[in-house]
Design goal:
- This protein is of the alpha/beta class.
- It has a single domain, classed as Metal-dependent hydrolases (TIM Barrel, Alpha-Beta Barrel).
- Helices cover 40% and strands 16% of the residues.
- It has ten helices and ten strands.
- The protein has an eight-stranded parallel sheet with strand order 2-4-5-6-7-8-9-10. It has a two-stranded parallel sheet with strand order 1-3.
- Helix 7 links the parallel strand 8 (187-189) and strand 9 (208-211).
- Helix 4 (108-118) packs parallel to helix 5.
- The chain is globular.
- It comes from Agromyces cerinus subsp. cerinus.
- One of its GO terms (molecular function) is DNA nuclease activity.
């Protein structure tokens, strides 16, 4: 297998930012993981390749990341790079906004079959990001989103994988779908966007809440309220890089090495010891995805 890690499959849909990546933050006292990132997307004046991303991350106490696919091409890439890079695991799926287009072209079932095949690979540990997005998709495309979401839930359960949910303006329908068809044992609300009510509901169901850099935004008190009521053993952290760069770095490209900014902010909101909080985050992440060392890579670069 050729090494896919230096390449980028795409740039940001808005063309990317001209700004440079920020300087590295102070390292965390205990290593944690970025459980949702998109390293296939080039951003910034000088885009980083996968190796550069992970070297910077390791230098500040980020032990690894989950590289997430959003269509067939990025899911294949994610599975391939995780097979080569010991600091990465993969998640594979069709983003909910892909489903209506695939349905219209008659290729949704074919694309889902590819996700099912990729799900069997040993370093693929999650199905995601999948879910519902009513912000970008109107009524006419929602049927395809529901069908795709339910198919992804089935794939996750059959393969014993975690589920990473994309939920935008669709809280009630996401929850209703999970309850109707049965959620996988390890279900994660990626880039959690609800408030205290959804956080309490998720806690009752045993679901995980993953907080991104937007928890630091001034207008995101609802996310901080959710964080305060979430069980500590159900909290995860992510970048969703290159998006959602945390305060005080908004406007600059995001990357896994910037996770310490978000982790420190979350610890302050909760009023907890930083090292203990890092230990909890790391344990939670491994509980969802397994160890990054469980399956050997097939040819990682030295």
């Amino acid at each position: 297998m050729s090494d896919p890690s230096p390449a980028h499959l795409r740039t940001r849909s808005d063309g990317g930012r001209a700004a440079e990546y920020p300087p590295a933050p102070e390292p965390l006292p205990v290593a944690v993981y970025d459980n949702h990132t998109h390293l296939e997307i080039a951003d910034g004046a000088l885009p980083l390749d996968v190796h550069e991303h992970l070297e910077r991350a390791a230098s500040v106490g980020i032990a690894g990341a989950v590289q997430v696919g959003t269509d067939v091409a990025t899911s294949r890439w994610s599975a391939e790079v995780a097979a080569l890079e010991p600091r990465l695991l993969a998640a594979v799926a069709l983003h909910p906004n892909e489903a209506p287009e695939l349905e219209a072209s008659g290729t949704l079932d074919e694309a889902l079959a590819v996700i099912d095949e990729l799900a069997a690979r040993p370093r693929v540990r999650a199905i995601g990001e999948t879910g519902l997005d009513f912000f970008r998709t109107g009524e006419d495309g929602r049927g395809a989103q529901f069908r795709s979401f339910e198919a992804h839930i089935d794939i996750a359960k059959r393969h014993g994988l975690a589920l990473q949910i994309h939920d935008r303006d669709a809280h009630d329908d996401v929850v209703a779908t999970l309850r109707r068809v049965g959620a996988p044992e390890r279900t994660v609300f990626h880039c959690f966007s609800g408030g205290e009510e959804l956080a309490r509901l998720a806690a009752d169901e045993g679901w995980y809440l993953s907080f991104a850099g937007n928890v630091t935004f001034k207008n995101a008190e609802n996310l901080r309220e959710a964080l305060r009521v979430a069980p500590r053993d159900r909290i995860l952290v992510e970048t969703d890089a290159p998006y959602l760069t945390p305060v005080p770095l908004r406007g600059r490209p995001n990357a896994p090495y910037l996770v310490p900014h978000t982790v420190r902010f979350m610890a302050e909101v909760l009023g907890v010891d930083l090292a203990e909080f890092c230990e909890q985050l790391a344990a939670n992440t491994v509980a969802v995805y397994g160890s990054w060392q469980d399956e050997p890579v097939t040819g990682a670069k030295a």
